[in-house]
Structure formats: structure tokens, C-alpha cells
Amino acid sequence: MSLGKKDALGGRAAVVGIGATEFSKESGRSELKLAVEAVHAALDDAGLSPADVDGLVTFTMDTSPEITVAQAAGIGELSFFSRVHYGGGAACATVLQAALAVSAGIAEVVVCYRAFNERSGRRFGAGVQQREPSAEGTALGWNLPSGLLTPASWVAMAAQRYLHAYGLTPEAFGRVAVTGRRHAARNPAAYFHGQPITLAEHAASRWIVEPLRLLDCCQETDGGQALVVTSRERARDLRNPPAVVVAAAQGAGRAQEQMTSFYRDELTGLPEMAVVARQLWRTSGLGPGDMDVGIIYDHFTPFVLMQLEEFGFCGPGLGSDFVAADALPLNTHGGQLGEAYLHGMNGIAEAVRQIRGTSVNQAAGAAHTLVTAGTGVPTSGLILGADG
Question: Residue 29 contacts by C-beta under 8 Å, 6 or more apart in sequence?
Fold first, then answer.
């Protein structure tokens, strides 16, 4: 099936550059400096210069404004600049917005970036105490009076119900953690390079919020990641093989946590990711069996299982068995559990490497890679493919 057959976006843009800083717990420099380093690295990877860039996209949570990054990175005139809401849910949507701008002729070269000192600076995992009011945080008002102050506590509510509904134990989540760390152990860029874990080590790690243990929770990372998007035609003349944007989608579900808190009929699924899944399969004309690699957002292990189920890789409650069977190469960079927590942007970079054939955990003949963004919030997803 030809790329882009099902909609006007698919197949018209491609990711042509990826660049990152080192992933650490103490960067020793500003978030703006991290952003600029990542942007320069991505442009160098693409064989482009700052003067070629006319668009920038980032997260509303990023502290480095587009114009400031352009100034510091030596970028000139911009015809497109934009931000996407909802934390990690924005990751794939930055590429979606860049692809839309390129496909519409509004911009020619758009850089997507995310940079933060999430370990040495403000730690998202510490919760919402003393945060400034925001529109994105309004929905949290339903949870906070009950003492649900941290992301782990929000996920634990759904995770506990998931285990009860399907008669599982927390070992089901451990399989995701073990898989991520196995891949991270072979990835020199990963924070946990050379440090695989076993199911027994997962089970021995301390409780954070039952049923979540320490090894069910992603890292907190200092670093930056950038991606360069341009047209498919221009991409063919650049330094590396393009990773074509076969399909891209955003999704918000009526029954999702941000709309309902925990007051809904069922807690064992992710309605927002179901919206993304339907969109990606419909617009690409592809399905689960066509995916060669899955880069599944792993801020917490239970939501990896639920995402696999929402996308139809397996039935409800069977996600852990699917992971254990190695039925799909999963988070081959190590994920946010093993490589780094960059709000999912480093996962998109890994998807590009898989299409290029340059991953340290390369899947043979990878032609299509699924990437998902953060869950529990309005989210996004991508299918990247080889040019051919």
C-alpha cells in the first residue's frame, strides 16, 4: 500500500534529523542551553544549518520559547511557530504540527524540541504541590482533595483496578520494566546502560504507590531532544534516509481521566489512546500486524499494557503476555524506564533510527514503527515508515 493513500497528510513529510544532549541527573546548564544543543545536533544530523529553519514547535510546558531558541541557535526568519499542551501527550503532536505546516507549504524545515532539567530542577514526579495555576491543571482539582498529588498515585488507581479486573499480580507490570531495561543495557546513550534487571529485582524494588514499585516508574532526566521535519521530496536529498510520517493523530476521549477524574464506568483502558489508534489505523490503512517496532510511552508500566490493548495488538488483560512473548520489538532504546525521560521525544528519535536501520537494538527490516505519547492526558501518536 502506498504511503499517504488514506489522507492528505500521510507520506508528505518526513523526519530527517535527530539530535540530543547527554541524558543525566545533573546537566549543569540551563534548559535553554540544552534546547539549543539538541537543535544544533539535529540539524547537523540532517545536513542542514540554522539558516534553513523556518519553523519551530515545542511543548507548552517547555521553558524555552520558540523565538528565544531561534535567537540563541542562530535561526533567522520564522514563518511557523507553535506549542502543544498536556505534557508527554504532546510528543507526537509536535511532529504532527510540523508535518501539517510542511504539507501546507507554510514552512519548509521545522524543528521540534523539548528540553528540561527534570531531575536537577523542577521534578514532575514530586507532584503538583506549589505549582502555579494553569488551565491544564484545573482537572486535577477533582483529585487533590483526596490526596492524589503525584502522577504515580493517579496511575496506581487505574493499575489496581486493572489487576483486579483481569486476575493479575504486579508481576504483569514487571515484564515491561524488564524489557525496557534489557534494551537500555545495550544502548550506550541510556542512563541505565549495562544495567539490565530481572523480574525478581522488579518485585524486590520498593513500593511507590501500590501496586506500583520503583521499577514501574520512569526516570527523571536532565536533557534535550530535537527532531527536524521537512518535505518528503527535500528529505531525499539530505544526509540520512528519511523516516516518512505515514500517519499522525491526536486524541482526547470523553471518558478519559482529564475529563472524568476516576468517575467513569471502566478504569482498565485508555479512551484517549483509543481515539489515536482508530485515527492512525484509518488514515494509514495499516494495522497492528504491519508494525515492526512499537515505541510505547512508558512513564508507568501499566499504561504500556493498556496501550497495546487499545491498539489491538492483543485482547484486554493480555498485554503482559504479549510483552513476555516478545511478539513485537518494544521500546528498543530502553524507553523512559531505561534510556531517559524526555516526555517521549527520545522515543520518536528511536523510531527514526529503526527506520534508518541504525538502532543499537535494530529490528531486522523495520519498515513501519508505531510511536505513542503520554497517557492519562490528551495524547498523540505516529506511524513512521521507510521511503519506498
Answer: none
